[in-house]
């Protein structure tokens, strides 16, 4: 098998990964065929990583080496759910995901930690889509995060809550994400007094999508933000289910 051209071996592994019993979860057994198969198999096996809660994260840390040249280099889609604010013991492992293009952060408090920025730093040239769902953060952290992610094209925010920390922040008007053809999606959020302070009224978007549950009912902060806005838009979309109850 070692005499086969690499392009042919890659194609065989890709076919195994996309059909029947050769799906990524079952691919590990094929890595014993040849050492040359391992890298391609890992690119499928570790392409999507879902870390649910601190116990799963601890298990990952015990079993996986925290190295950017290890299996984490193959991950393109990282999902973090219910990750606590204290992540110092996990920080090195999260930083090893250097080539993630999409990241979902769900029901987690770690965006309240100053260490969160260190986790995003290695993804500076790869992360293009970020979804934050029902997770609190601070104005300083979210603005600093956007400053450090110049490749970000889509920011999908659902149930975001901004808490305190109003001083020493980057000026939203200076953040590259707000000056281009990027997409911002605001979903199912009861916007509070400061929950929109991270979005400058002069922002430019290729697309702004707003959830009708609150956009059509126009809560005071959203109404004030839209009224004072000088945003440049290519498209404005209403998303979600207008009949959904908040």
Structure description:
- The protein has 246 residues and is of the alpha/beta class.
- It folds into 3 domains: 1-45, no CATH class; 47-127, no CATH class; 149-246, no CATH class.
- It is 26% helix and 20% strand.
- The protein has helices at 6-18, 38-45, 53-63, 91-95, 116-120, 139-147, 212-215, 220-227, and strands at 48-52, 77-81, 102-106, 129-133, 136-137, 154-158, 161-162, 183-187, 204-210, 232-238.
- The strands form 2 sheets. Strands 1-2-3-4-6-8-9-10 form an 8-stranded parallel beta sheet. Strands 5-7 form a two-stranded parallel sheet.
- Strand 1 (48-52), helix 3 (53-63) and strand 2 form a beta-alpha-beta unit.
- Strand % is 15-25%
Question: Mean pLDDT across all residues, rounded?
Answer: 77
What is the percent of helical residues? 25-40%
Number of strands: 10
Strand order, sheet with most strands:
1-2-3-4-6-8-9-10
How do you describe this structure in short?
The chain has 246 residues and is an alpha/beta fold.
Which helices and strands, and how do they pair?
Elements: H1 6-18, H2 38-45, E1 48-52, H3 53-63, E2 77-81, H4 91-95, E3 102-106, H5 116-120, E4 129-133, E5 136-137, H6 139-147, E6 154-158, E7 161-162, E8 183-187, E9 204-210, H7 212-215, H8 220-227, E10 232-238
Helix pairs in contact: 1-2
